[in-house]
Amino acid sequence: MAIYEIEQSQKSPTNTKGPIKWVLDNLVATPTHVIFSFLILGLLYITIPPFITWAIIDANFIGTTKASCTGDGACWVFIIHKMDFFIYGFYPESEIYRINWVFGLSIIFLLLFKYTGKTFKAKIALFSLFPIIAYFLITGGSFGLVEVPTDKWGGLMLTLIISSIGIVVAMPVGIILAFGRQSKLPIIKSFSIVYIEFVRGVPLITILFMGSVILPMFFPEGMTFDKLLRVLIVVTLFQAAYVAEVIRGGLQAIPKGQYEAADSEGLSYWQKMLIIILPQVIKVSIPNLVGNAIGLFKDTTLVLIIGLFDLLTMVGLTSIDSHWTGFATEGYVFVGFIFLIFCSGLSRYSKVLEDRLNTENR
Amino acid sequence: MNYIIEIEKLNKWFDDFHVLKNINLKIKEGEIVVICGPSGSGKSTLIRCINYLEQFQQGTVTVDGIILKDDVKKIKELRKHVTMIFQHFNLFPHLSILENLTLAPTYVKGVSKTQATKTAMKYLKRVNIAEQAHKYPNQLSGGQQQRVAIARGLCKDPKIMLFDEPTSALDPEMINEVLDVMIELAKEKKTMVCVTHEMGFAKKVADRVIFMDQGQIIEENTPKEFFENPQSDRLKQFLEQIITD
Fold first, then answer.
1. How many Cβ atoms from other residues are within 10 Å of residue A120's Cβ?
2. pLDDT in tens, A301-319
């Protein structure tokens, strides 16, 4: 027979904390650690300082012509001079304010969206209102605005339009496809499977090409479809197949008990799927959904092959200007930087969303 | 005699496995029936047939006058009056406790949000958990979650409550808090069908205890007779194994 007292909790010993301990534990703990630490630090040492010298210390920022650049470092004058091209493409200069309005509105709407809290209806209203306003502002042709045909659109603006529409519209389509793949009805099920597998089995570039070159051959004489619209449809349908697969993965993570509880509570199929299952699926799928969104954002650069001028294409177009030859490097670095900002922004946002939806550890 | 649940010649197969064999069972309104038996005896499957979570190939099940068959409207009507408490609680983890309780009343029965919240709080108080209303399921202990699940079931004011091993997934120290709630419910004489291994509960509140093995009902009796005077060898053996004191 023995009885033991419950002991008080104590602080952890001090010699297990602090920066020196961290370095010892994490950088030079074993000989292998030492080798890798030095290799990687060495690699950073031979790449980072020269890049900073080129991009900042020796670079030229001020001026109006090629002559302003000394040639030692990067010539950012080129980028600043061509900025309108990079952002708006061939959109008429006098109408550029309309695009700026859209950019401004998007920020306002995002903030409104954030601060409408849990009022679902307000969010839906905002979410549907923005594209309508943006559509009329960008295309024009009504409300006294000059019409700007889509072949004048380009640069960052075009990249953002294609990717945001692709990402947003593909979500519901992909979700329906994923539900379809789980359906008990054989026709719906096999259609979903064939569609998803076909689209995933073919590169985007092929589908884009089919959409823009081969498809119009089947249209009756004289019938044309706006090139950008075709791209939007193709990109959306392409992305939907990937979203469907991510959602399917999420669906498999939901325990059977959730379906049974929803059934036994008397919910209908759509109530069960939309109120109980989907929110949980989206929560577990966020990292993959954002990963796919980032992939699509970068894939929009492929629209080049069917003659749309996205952000990346602008580098090629601006660097063949006879007054500004030889600055393609600056162009690519700049465009790469923009892509990096948007993609890492999306990535950060996914982390924030994950934390917010994490009801387990709240 | 008025029966609220009538099961006649019920047969069910999982592929080629004959899981329910010719089940006949009639349950009166207000009756409390406990079903026990070894695992794999088909007791959970039987109880799940009563609210049509499981479909069956032969026989008829009539619940509250509704003959169960593949008809979305009828099943929906059925589930307004029948509630099931699961072994693993199956609360909706992305919704708060209160939202878990108000969901079905508002979406299925069309009750107003304020009314549903009022009802929900009433039942949360009944199961002694009202102060947790705004937490999320995963912040509660197993026993608390199961009590919430019972409150969720009560919110639709069901005629029949089905319990599918409600205490089997709980830590030993939490079983009693759930059983106490169930005993309280039993006093109200709501129809209860309960699959459980808690023989103490069966002795205390059941009107009838049913023993199942290999997909069949082997023996049924009043609790007193069932435990003190078991007839079949199979039941005697079963009781010997579970009653260890």
1. 9
2. 888 888 888 888 888 887 7
Q: How many CB pairs under 8 A join A and B?
A: 63
Alpha-carbon distance of A337 to A74, in angstroms, equals 14
Residues of B within 8 A of A276 (CB-CB) are 92
Tell me if residue B91 falls in helix, strand or coil: coil
Reduced DSSP (H G I as helix, E B as strand, rest coil) percent helix, strand, coil of chain A, to 5: 75, 0, 25
What are the DSSP calls for A310-358, one per residue? EHHHHHHHHHT-GGGTT-HHHHHHHHHHHHHHHHHHHHHHHHHHHHHH-
pLDDT at A362: 46
Q: Give the tens place of pLDDT for each residue, A60-91.
A: 777 777 777 777 777 787 788 778 888 888 88
ipTM: 0.92
Helix B97-108 with B72-81: angle, nearest 10 deg = 130
* Burial class, A222, CB count within 10 angstroms (exposed 0-12 / middle 13-18 / buried 19+): exposed
Q: Which residues of A touch B152 (CB under 8 A)?
A: 265
Which residues of chain B have a CB within 8 Å of the CB of A266? 76, 79-80, 104, 108, 156
SS3 call for B61:
strand
Instruction: Give the C-alpha separation, B76 to B51, whole Å.
Output: 10
In the predicted model, is pLDDT for residue B121 greater than 90?
A: yes
Greatest mean pLDDT among A24-33, A48-57, B127-136 lies in B127-136
pLDDT on residue A173: 95
What are B17's two structure tokens?
């496995």
Contacts of B107 in chain A (CB under 8 A): 267, 271, 275
- Which domains can be identified in chain A, with CATH numbers? 154-357 (1.10.3720.10)
Interface test with B, best of A264, A270, A353 (most B CBs within 10 A): A264
Q: What is the distance, to the nearest Å, from the Cα of residue A254 to the centroid of all Cα atoms in its chain? A: 26
| Torsion (CA) B126, B131, B135, B140 in degrees, nearest 10 | -70
* Nearest chain B residue to A284, by CA: B94
Dihedral over alpha carbons A26, A27, A29, A35 (to 10 degrees): 140
